[in-house]
Amino acid sequence: MVKRFFSVINKEVSGLHQAAYLLAFFAISSQLLALVRDRLLASHFGAGHTLDLYYAAFRIPDFIFITVGSMVSVSVLIPFLVEKMKAGAEEGRRFIGNIFTFFFLLIIVISIIAFFFIPTINKLLFTGFSTADLSIVNNMTRILLLSPIFLGISNIFGTLTQTYKRFLIYSLSPILYNLGIILGIILLYPMFGLVGLVLGVVVGAFLHFAIQIPFIVENNFFPKPKLNFDFAEIRKVLLVSIPRTFTLGSDNISVIFLLSFASSMVAGSIAVFNLSYNMQSVLLSVIGVSYSLAAFPILVRFFADGERGKFLDQIILSAQHIIFWSLPCVILFITLRAQIVRTILGAGVFNWTQTRLTAAALAVFVISVIFQNLTLLFVRAYYATGNTKKPFIAKFINATSTVALGFGFMILYKVYPPFKDLLESLLRIKDVPGTIILALPLGWSVGEVLNSLVLWFVFEKDFKGFSKPVLKTALQVLLSSISIGVVSYFSLNLFAIIFDLDTTIGIFMQGFLSGLLGIMAGIIVLIVLKNKEIIDVHNTLKSKISKIKIFAPTQTGL
């Protein structure tokens, strides 16, 4: 039974749409588990002080993972590995062993140093916490230092599973990660308190990399530690990975500063920020990450082979489908925000006031989702060409501006009442306390939109002909999305009469049926406009995921 399971997940998946949809399917599964995780957290603690402490404990481990663990991310190592494999499988094994040993020792040393400086760093970051609160956060943070170690190893293994199109293995990792966290909430928290919660996170991080071990071992690719490093090779990786690491991790760095601001606000502000951020990240993971990951190995090969036309066509195709999926979802999330939040988080001590505030923050966050998704594609497109400078500069400006805008909007909220009134009126939360937290998602979204537009402008200059077909798709999808929003909005009033909105099932059915009618209206508009993307989706789904072309692993020595 176990052998059959690993035989299935070791199969190779080919084709952009098939790989993207497979990644999207498991991304949805992972995100559903993440939503279950957040519902359990919300029902146990609400958007309150305890959850603030829990989320604060992640900041230093996250930073270590971003700055060290992500140096060996898939997008960094795949081009190197593809080049090494041209000289044979043994050269690929030597390369992985060299990189694994160096970065494993590096992250261990940095984690040990961080262990002793955690109290000082947390005191600087979370100025709104008491001494007792900081003591709790420090203990949880120290346990969480194991997570970036496991996830960093998983990144190295993920390079192999991605390179050889074992997308199923790669897709299972985040699912197991979330299962570990859920285990911590259900089983370990009752036994050990908040420490049990972070132990669950560590278990999930371990499972994240452990699922990849059988494929690595079976193909004789498990890294062999050695101390005689090839520093010239490591230097090449570092020169590429440092700007890439900052570029791909800049959003997380921005979040660290924004949460630092939130710690000085009313209790529960960090929780509201994280819960709404996690929900908007569903769209990012399911759409943007799936397409950019599926396209990346293909883009690397096209560019390496000098097929610039095919490279551009692949980017255009990916961008069109990202817009096709993102824009309608953004409109639905904004229109149905209260129904979404109440259905997902509305249990236990998570009350209606917290629902409204989290829903408002979600609406502000999702405004920028389509731009975040396109940014992921632009960044990985440049990485496929070996160009790290342009996305690095763009994301540096983005990270700086996002933090500055968040801080600026927070100050504006305090000193200029008309700004506060405008935010509360637009989002219908004038009687809700703690609305100052909305300044931070607003700063985030404005910064992300500006960054994406700058990258688009630069990419069009480098690869002329990108914008026209993409903008044509965007216009068609925009018209469709407007119809989705209008129909969904008016349907909410209709179903409010039919269903009992004091129950979770009633709220769910109101939002679900309203969204369904809106989607049907949007599909009709796309059909009338003869939209190409909906035809592509229909043809791909018609073949059924079960009939995706899958190959058994070839005897390449891996």
| Radius of gyration over C-alpha positions, nearest whole angstrom | 23 Å
Question: Helicity level, as a percent range?
Answer: over 70%
Q: In one word, what is the shape? A: globular
Question: Counting H and I runs of at least 4 residues, what is the number of helices?
Answer: 23
Question: What proportion strand?
Answer: under 5%
> Termini distance?
23 Å
Order of helices and strands: HEHHHHHHHHHHHHHHHHHHHHHHE
The main sheet orders its strands as: 1-2
Assign the structural class, choosing from mainly alpha, mainly beta, alpha/beta, alpha+beta, or little secondary structure.
mainly alpha
Number of strands: 2
Runs with pLDDT <50, length 5+?
Answer: 4-10, 12-16, 544-558
Mean pLDDT: 83
> Main sheet, how many strands, which sense, barrel?
2 strands, antiparallel
